[in-house]
Design brief:
Bound molecules: iron/sulfur cluster
Number of domains: 2
Number of helices: 15
Distance between the termini: 13 Å
Largest sheet: 9 strands, mixed
Radius of gyration: 21 Å
Structural class: alpha/beta
Oligomer: single chain
CATH architecture of the largest domain: Alpha-Beta Horseshoe
Helix content: 25-40%
């Protein structure tokens, strides 16, 4: 296989990507961006809770383990204070999408979830909310927690599954039999949280093609609206808990590709529509409709129909996207807490978006969402000559075209079914920062 296919490349949940953020964007810059939001700008809110009961070995999220309630209570109060500050600078805006992520956001428990939701409603206008989603750990769900979720308006839940195979679960430190997930799904539906996403993974230690196929079939029995299949990214230099994974048990690049392909084929056979790189949805789900209409978007949570004018990230490590650029909060809870307690915003880095970033960002987003892009249409929108701007990128894609991973017709690029797993590599040809930045990314597959 060509070396280009083994490149380590970003996941392109944003462009420019987070490793290119710098301290040039601080709380003063972020404050001015918030103040500059148009009065009628709509928002999407992401609320990060960086705590879990125990850490799964494969976890790549910004989270830490705790069994104490005090730090969680303190954190909820800080988030409320951060909301107040944002509203002070930006005014009261309509929120269209609300997403609780982590970590395990439900670790807040019923009372703090209600308190935090109450604070959100105090500082933002939630009357036009289209979607209210939360990431959940099925091992810690019970009817009273689900009742609380429903009472605050949650209407979509993402459950972490990874793999149902007990041997794989053992090696990644997360024991979660099928019945635990099934009970969680049944309880959520009973209380009216009817939209269910399941998150699966390939590339974990001891995983095989056949247990991935079995996991897909078991997941299908639970009738989720969406299934995501993420490739495990082994980055132990970045996430210390991954050092607990025995590298000799990790599948090779060839095995990872076979696993991703097996999951894809099984899901398509079961009737799911492939969405972008790693999501699958029932054809009546909003995300499937948006994909068919070319309206799919990509953000930090993956694929979405979120069309709000700005994204406000709340909590440690959360990233905000404003028309001017990206701003990220301190990743460590200590740094975040100190800033918010001192009545400051916790912004520590970010990046202003240039016109070139916007153009490349749109190209990369269309490739990641539609597996295709019309460079000329984007060039016309920005009044630039695509020939002189992107001849290097097109030349860099020649080897992928030669092996049938994509088709190039003039300035139209289409990633073939064979090339779909390598969409990130195709997108990376348009990333102007990649050559300058030596950050270590995860492999493309
Ligand atoms: S995978 Fe989820 S539950 Fe496990 S440690 Fe990471 S955030 Fe927590």
């Amino acid at each position: 296989m060509l070396g280009i296919l083994h490149q380590a490349v970003p996941r392109y949940t944003s462009y420019p990507t987070a490793p290119n953020f710098s301290s040039a964007v601080d709380d003063a810059v972020y404050r001015s961006w918030l103040a500059g939001l148009a009065e009628n700008a709509t928002l999407s809110i992401y609320l990060h809770v960086p705590y879990c009961r125990d850490l799964c070995f494969y976890c790549g999220c910004n989270t830490k383990a705790t069994h104490k309630q005090k730090p969680i209570e303190r954190y909820a109060k800080l988030i409320a204070e951060e909301m107040a500050q944002i509203a002070r600078y930006a005014g009261r805006h309509k929120v269209r999408y609300l997403h609780w992520g982590g970590g395990t956001p439900s670790i807040l428990g019923a009372d703090l979830l209600k308190f935090t939701a109450g604070e959100l409603a105090r500082h933002f206008d939630l009357a036009a909310l289209v979607e209210h989603a939360i990431e959940l750990d099925p091992r810690y769900l019970n009817p009273s927690l689900v009742r609380a979720l429903r009472s605050i308006g949650v209407n979509r839940a993402s459950l972490g599954v990874q793999d149902f195979n007990p041997r794989v679960q053992q090696t990644v430190g997360r024991i979660q039999p099928f019945d635990v997930v099934k009970n969680a799904v049944v309880t959520l539906r009973e209380f009216g949280v009817v939209k269910i996403n399941l998150d699966l993974m390939y590339g974990l230690p001891r995983q095989t093609v056949s247990n991935i196929q079995e996991t897909v079939h078991l997941a299908h029995q639970l009738e989720p609206q969406r299934i995501a299949v993420f490739g495990y990214a082994h980055v132990p230099w970045f996430r210390a808990q991954q050092r607990l994974i025995d590298e000799s048990e990790l599948p090779s690049a060839r095995e990872r590709l076979a696993q991703a392909t097996a999951a894809h084929d099984a899901l398509v056979q079961l009737g799911y529509q492939p969405i972008g790189l790693d999501h699958y949805a029932r054809s009546d789900d909003q995300i499937a409709t948006a994909a068919r209409a070319g309206r799919l978007r990509r953000n930090f949570q993956g694929y979405t129909v979120d069309d709000a004018d700005a994204l406000i990230g709340l909590g440690a490590s959360a990233i905000s996207r404003l028309p001017n650029g990206f701003a990220q909060n301190a990743s460590d809870v200590g740094g975040y807490s100190r800033a918010v307690a001192a009545a400051k915003l916790a912004t520590v880095k970010g990046i202003s978006i240039s016109v070139d970033d916007r153009i490349r960002g749109q190209i990369i987003e269309r490739l990641m969402c539609d597996m295709a892009v019309d460079l000329e249409a984007i060039g016309d929108r920005f009044e630039i000559d695509v020939g002189s701007n992107f001849s290097d990128a097109l030349a860099a894609l020649d080897p992928l075209r030669d092996i049938g991973n994509l088709q190039i017709d003039g300035y139209r690029i289409r990633i073939t079914d064979k090339g779909r797993p390598f969409a990130r590599v195709v997108a990376s040809a348009f990333d102007a920062y990649l050559k300058r930045n030596h950050t270590r990314h995860s492999p493309a597959i």
